[in-house]
Amino acid sequence: MVASPALGSGRGPARARVVAAGCAVAVCATVAAPAAAQDDTSSGKPTVVLIHGAFADGSSWNGVIQRLERRGYPVIAPANPLRGLYTDSTYIASVLDSVKGPIVLVGHSYGGAVISSAAVGHPRVGSLVYVSSLMPDKGESGQSLAARFPSELPTALRAVPYRAGDGMRGKDLYLKRDKLHRVFAADLPAGTARLLAATQRPAGTATLSEKAKVAAWRQIPSWVLVAKQDKTINPRQERFQAKRAHSHTVEINSSHVAMIAHPQEVTDLIIKAATATGSARPSPAAEPSDSRARAESRPADTAAAWVTGGAAALLLGGGALVLGHRRRRRSRSSLR
Q1: How confident is the model over 220-233, as pLDDT tens digits?
Q2: Which of 89, 153, 221, 312 could crosslink 117 through cysteines, CB 3.0-4.6 Å?
Q3: Distance, CA of 135 to CA of 143 (rounded, Å)
Q4: Could you give the count of Cα atoms lying within 13 Å of 6 in the half-sphere of its Cβ?
Q5: What is the mean predicted confidence (pLDDT) over 241-253?
């Protein structure tokens, strides 16, 4: 979302060609070839793949990329198409196919939902990192999670109709310019927030409505950064997701765009995920069929179960008392 210096310095026809190419990638990502992968594995370190979320682009990771590369990590930040969870995760999975060696997969915001689907079936993805992010379970969507953990995001959204060249029509979601600073990036300077508002990439409505079919964090160890001042995703939701995934979790005083406002803290968490071994790695979460997983993923049902269980205990206890009383009465009668 932050303008790239390389593009900003371009002039004339060359700049026009670069801009046109960028637009082609953004609009046609579902049919384009995967982003060029980092093929320098000489460092022996895993490749860090950074996936941006809605209203953003790969440049939102600039500060993190600089720090990781100084530590010798190969890094790529491919374009997330932002068309819908199924389309986006399929595209990002194809990007992962092109990366050599082990991978640390990182997602911000809606990008967390994308990596949770894209990483399934990729044995070289050794760690997942979620930065103020969505972590849907099977059958959940961004909308269903937001309904349980409301945030200020709905007050900042505006829907804009679009037409595609093949006759397809739909609506894209943008952040209102006068709301972006407060809801999305409150701890950034106002000038930076205005730049983010001007360069934001829209997200199709399917990014929030499509339900996850898989959840990679149930098989792959995960690390979570909770942004305590987040107004886009409720911090309670971020904590809930991390708890049920058995993630290693850190919390910082940040707005939603923690990777821009606090790139060092985000970098530190990624390096922890990249270097953790043995007992330092959090255990993956149980499958939904596990009773504990079901209880963690549905707190309302858990509360109901406690109430139901308590009532059953009282009924059973009462029955035992009545039965014991009747036995004592029969015993006294026989003595007479």
Answers
A1: 999 999 999 999 99
A2: 89
A3: 12
A4: 5
A5: 98
Taking the C-alpha atoms of residue 248 and residue 255, their distance in angstroms, rounded to an integer, is 20
The predicted-structure confidence for 67-105, as pLDDT tens digits, reads as follows 999 999 999 999 999 999 999 999 999 999 999 999 999
Bridge-based pairing state of the strands 47-51 and 222-227: unpaired
Indicate if the pLDDT at residue 180 is higher than 80. Answer: yes
* Cβ-contact 93, 213 below 8 angstroms: no
- DSSP-assigned beta bridge partners for residue 158: 174
DSSP state of 126: E
Give the DSSP H/E element, type plus range, for residue 297: helix 291-297
Say if residues 15 and 7 touch (Cβ distance below 8 Å): yes
The DSSP line for 140-182 is: --HHHHHHHS--SHHHHEEEEEEE-TTS-EEEEEEE-HHHHHH
For residues 157 and 176, the answer to whether their CB atoms sit within 8 Å is: yes
How much is the average pLDDT of 188-214?
Answer: 97
Place of tokens 């190969």: 74
Q: Is residue 174 predicted with pLDDT exceeding 70? A: yes
Cα torsion angle, 7, 184, 173, 207, sign: positive
The angle formed by the CA atoms of residues 80, 121 and 78, to the nearest 5 degrees, is: 20
DSSP single-letter state for residue 133: E
CB neighbour burial string for 7-45, b if at least 16 within 10 angstroms, e if fewer:
eeeeeeeeeeeeeeeeeeebeebeeeebbebbeeeeeeb
Least confident interval from 10-24, 83-97, 135-149, 237-251 = 10-24
Burial class of residue 334 (count of CB atoms within 10 Å of its CB; 0-12, 13-18, 19+): exposed
* Ranges assigned E (strand) in the chain: 47-51, 75-76, 103-109, 125-133, 157-163, 169-175, 203-204, 222-227, 248-252
* Placement of tokens 């959090």 in the chain: 282
Strand ranges of the sheet holding 47-51, from the earlier edge strand across to the other edge? 75-76, 47-51, 103-109, 125-133, 222-227, 248-252
End-to-end CA distance of the chain, in Å? 91
